[in-house]
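pasting for ref
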Amino acid sequence: MTQIASDTFNRANQSGWDTSSDGETWAIVRNSFTWNIVSNKGAANSAANFTIARLGSQTPTNSDNTARIAPASANNIGMVARFVDSSNFYYAVFDAGNIVIGKDVAGTFSTLISTAFAITFGTSYHLRFNLNGTTLMLKAWQDGSAEPGSFQLSTTDASLASGGFGVGSDDSGATNTLWDEYVVLNDTLCIAVTPTSLSFGGSGTQNVTLTSCASVSEAWTATILGGSPWLSVSPSSGTLAIAGNATVGITVNATGLNPGTYTDTVQFAVTGQTVNVSVTVIIPAPPPAGNIVWDAGEPTIQTDKFVLVNIGTT
């Protein structure tokens, strides 16, 4: 994953949020609210319906969005992603004692999935909203506690493929909701494989290690590209947990192979990425047949054929 946007909000008190700590520009793109920088926090209130502030102009397909938020009310406070326009976007919010993943498509709001999550107004919580392909996931936890290992919400939806990102709020109270520690990562499924080349001198098994570098669990498959019957992989598929790894055995059965060099490739794949492991097998030629020669009564080895030579006297 690579970071594509962030804002610490660590700047002087001011009206508006203006330029983020990474140089991107904040802009209100849906409805309006009063927003300021207050004590190194992004503060906003008096929203007119659901208001969105977008950061920058990037439009990733897959993203991992996190923010620390101190809600001032129970009304739809959180983040947006895959923002296309003011009538098409996904949102992940605290709302009325729940955390919610929802969407606005063609101006119609709908909740995709939700679960209970109690909050205390003015207390800071973290939201992490992950979008990868059609999978949308959300987790929340109170500031100062450990991030949960798994997402509390997971659903699928294919309405929006890519778009911008930012924060959203329907807080119409007099007290500011506060944001900081906002980070957006370009999140794609990815694996690292080591080693990426194997050499065999005959039959045997060698292992490679698969390591996930994604922020979500990911399914992988292994394919023998050349289809060589002397080569096999076990297991040939599986699922990697977040930051998890797996050991895969690559086996050569050299039975029946003539002397020579054999090559093929094992390809490991997750959605959007492949990694190739080259396999080389060198079958040596057998040693030459020996020929016996008697020299002064002592045998020596010669090649090609048996030759008996009488070099003594009788």
